[in-house]
Amino acid sequence: MCSHFLHDSVQSAYRACHSMETALLRVHHDIAYALDNNCCAVLLMLDLSAAFDTIDHQILFNRLEYSFGVTGDALLWLKSYLMNRTQRVAIGSVQSDDIKLDFGVPQGSVLRPKLYCIFAKPVDEICRRHGMSYHSYADDTQVYQIIRPQGDWCDLSKA
Question: In what order do the strands lie in the sheet with 40-47?
Answer without folding.
Answer: 40-47, 140-147, 133-137
